[in-house]
């Protein structure tokens, strides 16, 4: 049966996401303690940390379900857990776009950092994004899943909603918007990297500005490798719902790999600081 093949794959993916995500959040939390929280980029990273934290709380329920092949937490709990992965994906996407947009704006305006005037402004801006996204998504979650094959032991079987033409149109719009935005961001990032490489003397690997642009490129690649497989496959899935349910679940699980972004980002920052502490005594004499 397909589920006997899919469930071990899903358990493996979610286990990796959970362990890597928790480690990344812990490390990143320590790194953010001494950073400037008025920075727009840091504010976006803090929001990503919060989004990942909320989503990771739902992963154990998914793992238990796929291990036991039975849902024992009730229908509405199933809807909430099912919604969290979509909420996580689109909130991450929004904050990725905000962070990259700010970094691009800073580059073209020749500013090293773009900051809020006060910390309160960063809180208000973050809250506004969360509220807007929740206002859009929560009604969809409430209405979505009214037609289900649930027999008290199954979960995530909400695919009957996709038979409605309106739901399909909304899905196509979301797919088109995400693909267009990511391709646009990738194009702009490549243009920026080319400009940086042309303007920097000597080896580009020795310049901080070049590595900063590679960090921006990293977040774009996270969106491509985490979100694109699910959305591209969904174009096919919308017309083959019944026979491709488990394949869709695997591609949906791949979107959760974006939780590993902070782990990678934190490790880069952590090793960079280690390198600085190692090289400092060699480059400069100790000062008492």
From TrEMBL:
* Record-linked InterPro entries: GP183-like, GPCR_Rhodpsn, GPCR_Rhodpsn_7TM
Question: Which keywords, in A-to-Z order, does the entry hold?
Answer: G-protein coupled receptor, Membrane, Receptor, Transducer, Transmembrane, Transmembrane helix
According to the UniProt record, one GO cellular component term is:
membrane
UniProt cross-references to Pfam families, sorted A to Z: 7tm_1 (PF00001)
Instruction: Determine if Repressor is one of this entry's keywords.
Output: no
Query: How does the entry describe its membrane topology?
Result: Multi-pass membrane protein
PROSITE patterns in the cross-refs = G_PROTEIN_RECEP_F1_2
What Gene Ontology terms describe what this protein does at the molecular function level?
G protein-coupled receptor activity; oxysterol binding
Q: Which Gene3D superfamilies match?
A: Rhodopsin 7-helix transmembrane proteins
TM spans (from-to): 12-33, 45-67, 87-108, 120-144, 169-197, 217-239, 245-267
- G-protein coupled receptors family 1 profile domain boundaries: 23-272
Q: Where in the cell is it found?
A: Membrane
Q: Quick one: where is this thing mainly located?
A: membrane
- PANTHER family linked: G-PROTEIN COUPLED RECEPTOR, G-PROTEIN COUPLED RECEPTOR 141-RELATED
Indicate what this protein is called per its UniProt record.
Answer: G protein-coupled receptor 141
Top-level taxonomy: Eukaryota, Metazoa, Chordata, Craniata, Vertebrata
Q: Which gene encodes it?
A: GPR141
């Amino acid at each position: 049966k397909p589920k006997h093949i899919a469930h071990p794959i899903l358990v493996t993916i979610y286990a990796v996401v959970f362990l890597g995500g928790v480690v990344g959040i812990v490390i990143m939390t320590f790194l953010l303690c001494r950073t400037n929280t008025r920075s727009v980029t840091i504010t976006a990273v803090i929001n990503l940390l919060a989004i990942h934290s909320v989503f990771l709380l739902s992963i154990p329920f998914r793992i238990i379900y796929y291990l036991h092949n039975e849902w024992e937490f009730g229908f509405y709990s199933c809807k909430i857990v099912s919604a969290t992965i979509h909420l996580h994906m689109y909130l991450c996407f929004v904050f990725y776009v905000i962070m990259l947009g700010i970094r691009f704006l800073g580059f073209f305006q020749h500013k090293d950092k773009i900051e809020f005037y006060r910390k309160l402004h960063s809180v208000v801006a973050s809250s506004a994004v969360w509220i807007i996204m929740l206002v859009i998504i929560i009604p969809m979650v409430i209405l979505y899943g009214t037609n289900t094959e649930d027999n008290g032991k199954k979960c995530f079987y909400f695919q009957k909603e996709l038979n409605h033409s309106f739901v399909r149109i909304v899905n196509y719009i979301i797919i088109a918007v995400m693909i267009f935005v990511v391709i646009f961001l990738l194009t702009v990032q490549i243009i920026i990297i080319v400009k940086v490489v042309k303007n920097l003397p000597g080896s580009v690997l020795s310049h901080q500005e070049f590595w900063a642009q590679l960090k921006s490129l990293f977040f774009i690649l996270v969106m491509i490798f985490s979100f694109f497989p699910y959305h591209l496959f969904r174009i096919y899935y919308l017309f083959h719902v019944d026979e491709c349910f488990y394949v869709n679940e695997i591609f949906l699980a791949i979107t959760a790999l974006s939780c590993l972004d902070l782990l990678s980002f934190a490790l880069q920052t952590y090793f960079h600081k280690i390198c600085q502490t190692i090289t400092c005594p060699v480059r400069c004499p100790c000062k008492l």
